[in-house]
Amino acid sequence: RSNAEKFEFQAEVSRLMDIIINSLYSNKDIFLRELISNASDALDKIRFLALTDKEVLGEGDNTKLDIQIKLDKEKKILSIRDRGIGMTKEDLIKNLGTIAKSGTSAFVEKMQTSGDLNLIGQFGVGFYSVYLVADYVEVISKHNDDKQHVWESKADGAFAISEDTWNEPLGRGTEIRLHLRDEAGEYLEENKLKDLVKKYSEFINFPIYLWASKEVDVEVPTDEDESSDEEEKTESSSEEEEESEKDEDEDAEEKKPKTKTVKETTYDWELLNDVKAIWLRNPKEVTDEEYTKFYHSLAKDFSDEKPLAWSHFTAEGDVEFKAVLFVPPKAPQDLYESYYNANKSNLKLYVRRVFISDEFDELLPKYLNFLKGLVDSDTLPLNVSREMLQQHSSLKTIKKKLIRKALDMIRRIADEDPDEAKANDKKDVEDASDDEKKGQYAKFWNEFGKSIKLGIIEDATNRNRLAKLLRFESTKSDGKLTSLDQYISRMKSGQKDIFYITGPNKEQLEKSPFLERLKKKGYEVIFFTDPVDEYLMQYLMDYEDKKFQNVSKEGLKLGKDSKDKELKESFKELTKWWKGALASENVDDVKVSNRLDNTPCVVVTSKYGWSANMERIMQSQTL
Ligand code: ADP
Ligand code: MG
């Protein structure tokens, strides 16, 4: 085209497209879900803008916030059209090619090893999945702030943009035209598309229409002669075969105009989805399968794994809202990588059914960012800016309730897990239906345990609740995970403190001289082997009125021994000499201790100093 401007794809995007084009991946269906998801996002955006400025919606058909799918069997074109926010020329250039999203290279890397194309949406590059089925794609878009433009590419490293002077005006929104490859002919079948929308786009909150054919019976007028013939025939046949026919029917037959019935194909928009939001339904009426599917669509996680838990509730009172929270089956790889820099809440915020934002950090504290879900509030105001909303006083209440519900939900994973019940000697919890729940808490802990620890550090209000969720191994846990409650239930009579030791790994800790005596006397000691545990124990001072005692630190009390005083007295000279010999900058004190058994002596950290393990961690961080 004469007015087309040419652009090259950003290098990573180009590589991604190559991978997609050459992929032997069999599940090509996913492109439709990605396009519908983009259309839905674009509709969310315009609906949000319309809250504060009705004008943006325009008038007539432009106000209809829907998605339309159309087929052209002859030209082999599948098109998806939305009346969303649309893209300006600038948007088209940036969003579809020249600026790589942060997830692009991560996804490319993944795909080169053993990646699953199914996860493309999670990496923010779902659009390019169109090249699974098309060899040429046109994106026609009209944004309120610009003229209508066409983006087009054959995925050959370049794309072109032209001002659109030949297509019909869209009014507003985007139409994506896929020129399907020969082997993708199945996507020209209406039934295939209907199935896909049902399967993948069930929870889209805008109506999705298909321009669908329908075989209809039409009455067409017939010639005079013909019709009289036919009339005779029908009359005679009804007399012969159905004598019992009612009088009225016969009357109707007689009055029938002179027409005949023929089959004809007509086209009309057929609605493919039910737009009733799942969170507005009564939780009792929503099936497990529906929650699972809803989770998949919300998290863009189509891995077929079930979420570990969910909680669907309505909060009433001063602040009213509905929420659905999920614990995903797996933690994303980068969950803790940018923990302190990135605020990546995974909750979607709706106000009275209108999507507001999925980057609302005020809803959950950082340590719960691994949860997915949504909140729909009736209390928050609709027609204010995001910034104003962020400061709204109701948010505090919402956050508080969400945390409470989230922690309850996590605790329930443990409560319903037969493995956990066994560890707690609650045998009555076991029954056949719990099979699915078996080992779920250990799974949760492996994926998200660190988040619970970060929670203990950050959230003083819920520290005790979070501490209940803590799991660890100990000298008595026999390679399994155990909890503080279980530890307490095993404490020896007279034992006041909860004992723990920190170090790089369990094997090394098992050999520690600090444990000799404790083990011999039958005391249980917790192993903390994660670097974050050192920080954790600076915040977790006590649990159920029991203090924590690091057994490698000063202050270990194992019950008084009558000989203690005597021993101290008789070694007085030795300890004095020793302290002098080591010089005061090396040690604070030299003491007779009852913490050892075979080892003659050991270096103990002072109560408020860093443990040897902490020194090691700090060293590795500064190096
Ligand atoms: P994501 O949806 O995760 O952002 P995609 O690769 O699916 O990633 O889409 C890239 C970007 O292109 C979107 O963020 C959006 O800005 C733009 N886009 C795609 N489809 C549409 C559409 N139908 N309407 C408006 N913008 C769109
Ligand atoms: Mg997308």
From TrEMBL:
Domain of life: Eukaryota
Keyword set, alphabetical order: ATP-binding, Calcium, Chaperone, Endoplasmic reticulum, Glycoprotein, Nucleotide-binding, Signal
Residues that coordinate or bind ATP: 34, 38, 82, 87, 95, 101-103, 122-127, 174, 386
Compositionally biased region (Acidic residues): 219-252
Subcellular location: Endoplasmic reticulum lumen
Region (Disordered): 219-260
Primary localization: endoplasmic reticulum
Record-annotated Histidine kinase/HSP90-like ATPase domain positions: 27-184
Keyword Chaperone found: yes
Recorded GO MF terms: ATP binding; ATP hydrolysis activity; ATP-dependent protein folding chaperone; unfolded protein binding
GO annotation, cellular component aspect: endoplasmic reticulum lumen
Similarity comment text for this entry: Belongs to the heat shock protein 90 family.
Name of the protein in question: Endoplasmin homolog
Full protein segment contained here: 74 to 696 of 821
